[in-house]
Design goal:
Elements lengths: L4 E2 H4 L7 H21 L8 H8 L1 H19 L3 H34 L14 H7 L30 H16 L6 H21 L5 H21 L5 E2 L1 H16 L4 H18 L12 H17 L7 H41 L15
Antiparallel strand pairs: 1-2
Helix pairs in contact: 2-4, 2-12, 2-13, 3-10, 4-7, 4-9, 4-11, 5-6, 5-7, 5-12, 5-13, 8-9, 9-11, 10-11, 12-13
Length: 369
C-alpha cells in the first residue's frame, strides 16, 4: 500500500499557496463589505456562502498561527521576532491611516459638497484619527463625522477593527515562546481545545455585552488551531479521503453557523492542506498585495458609493472597488511594505561590510618553505 504523505512532507516554505490564498481572502472581505456598503443584504438562503464569507477573518488568523509560529521557530529571538512582526503590519497600517485621514476623508467631504478643510479640526479630526488609532485599537472610525450620505455613515475603514487581535496574537507567540510552551505541542493542543470550546459557549449562550470577549476567543482559537497544524505537520496525513472528509465537515459547519466552531479544525486543516499543495511556480505571486487589499478596499468602496457607483448593486461596487484597490495595494506593497521588511537585512549587510577582517600572521609551522 502506498504510504500516506504528511502535511510536513508536502509543505515547502519557499513554494506554497499562502500568498494566493491570502489575496483571495482579502478579496472576499471586500465582497462581504460590498453588500452593506451598497445598502443591500446578503441572500440568507445561501447559508454556505454566507457562512464562508463570515469565516474569512478566521482563516486569516489560522494562516497567521501557522506562519508566525514557523517564523518564531526559525529564529526564537524576542527582539528580532518583534521587529519582523512590527514591520509586517504597522508601517502599511500607519500609511493607510494617514491616507484615509488626509486624502480620502477630505476628498469624500468634497464629493459630498461639504468643506474639505473641516476634517482637520474637532475631536475626531484627521490628526486625531491617526493618533488615536495608531496602536491598531480603533477608537473611532469617522473623520470629523464623515462620511455622510452613504448607507453606512461614520466609518471610513470598518475593516481595521480586527487588527488589534492580530497584534495580540503576535505578542502571544512571543510570550508562549519565552515560557517554552511551544516545545510542548500537547499542551498547545489542549490550550487550543479549551479556547475553542470557550468560543463555542460564548457564541451560543453569550450576551451582546460579551462581544469583546467573544471576539477574543474567536480569533485566538483560530490562531492556535493554525499553530497546532504547524506543530503536528509531520503527523497530519494528506490524502484524498482525509481531504474529502475535512471538506464535508467544513461544509456542515458553514451551513450551520451554530456548530461552526466544532468543525473549525476541519476547515483549518483543509486550508493548510490546500496552501501546501499549491506549489506550481505559476501560482506564486511576485507581489503580496493581500494586506493592501485588506487595508484599502473599504475606504475605496465608501468613495465609490459617494460618487453613486454601485448603490444598490453590490457586485458592481465590488468590481469597481477591486479595479481601484488592486493598484493601491500594489503601491502599498512596493513603496511601503516590502521596503520596510527588507530594511533590517540591508542594515545588517551594510554593518557587516564595514567590519574589516583582521588578518593574523600564519603560525611558524604553516609558513611555506
Amino acid at each position: 500500500m502506498r504510504p500516506v504523505q504528511t502535511l510536513g512532507a508536502r509543505y515547502d516554505p519557499r513554494r506554497n499557496g499562502y500568498d494566493l490564498i491570502r489575496l483571495g481572502l482579502a478579496c472576499l472581505v471586500v465582497t462581504w463589505h460590498s453588500f452593506p456598503l451598497a445598502g443591500t443584504d446578503v441572500d440568507a438562503s445561501s447559508s454556505v456562502v454566507v457562512g464562508f464569507l463570515e469565516t474569512t477573518l478566521d482563516l486569516f488568523f489560522a494562516i497567521s498561527g501557522f506562519l508566525v509560529l514557523a517564523s518564531w521557530e526559525r529564529l526564537p529571538r524576542v527582539g528580532r521576532h518583534l521587529e519582523a512582526r512590527f514591520l509586517r503590519m504597522f508601517p502599511g497600517f500607519w500609511v493607510c491611516l494617514v491616507v484615509t485621514g488626509f486624502v480620502v476623508a477630505p476628498l469624500g467631504a468634497w464629493i459630498a459638497g461639504t468643506d474639505p478643510t473641516a476634517v482637520f479640526s474637532g475631536p475626531h479630526s484627521a490628526w486625531a484619527y491617526v493618533a488615536a488609532n495608531a496602536t491598531t485599537h480603533m477608537s473611532f472610525f469617522d473623520v470629523a463625522g464623515t462620511p455622510t450620505g452613504v448607507p453606512l455613515d461614520g466609518a471610513w475603514n470598518g475593516t481595521l477593527w480586527s487588527l488589534q487581535w492580530e497584534t495580540f496574537c503576535y505578542l502571544m507567540v512571543v510570550t508562549l515562546g519565552v515560557l517554552g510552551l511551544w516545545r510542548h505541542r500537547r499542551a498547545v493542543l489542549a490550550l487550543a481545545a479549551v479556547v475553542l470550546a470557550a468560543f463555542l459557549v460564548a457564541r451560543t449562550w453569550g450576551s451582546p455585552g460579551l462581544w469583546l470577549e467573544t471576539q477574543t476567543l474567536r480569533f485566538v482559537s483560530h490562531f492556535l488551531l493554525g499553530s497546532v497544524v504547524y506543530l503536528y505537520r509531520d503527523r497530519l496525513p494528506v490524502g484524498r479521503w482525509w481531504v474529502a472528509g475535512a471538506a464535508a465537515l467544513s461544509v456542515v459547519g458553514l451551513a450551520v453557523p451554530a456548530v461552526s466552531p466544532l468543525t473549525a479544525p476541519a476547515l483549518v486543516y483543509l486550508l493548510h492542506t490546500t496552501a501546501a499543495s499549491l506549489r506550481h511556480p505559476r501560482l506564486r505571486l511576485r507581489w503580496d498585495v493581500s494586506f493592501g487589499v485588506f487595508l484599502y478596499g473599504y475606504p475605496v468602496q465608501q468613495l465609490l458609493v459617494l460618487l453613486g457607483v454601485g448603490v444598490g448593486r453590490p457586485f458592481l461596487l465590488l468590481a469597481a472597488a477591486l479595479a481601484v484597490t488592486l493598484p493601491l495595494a500594489w503601491a502599498s506593497c512596493v513603496l511601503v511594505e516590502r521596503p520596510v521588511r527588507e530594511w533590517p537585512a540591508r542594515r545588517r549587510a551594510r554593518r557587516a561590510e564595514t567590519v574589516l577582517p583582521v588578518v593574523l600572521p600564519a603560525p611558524a609551522t604553516e609558513i611555506p618553505r
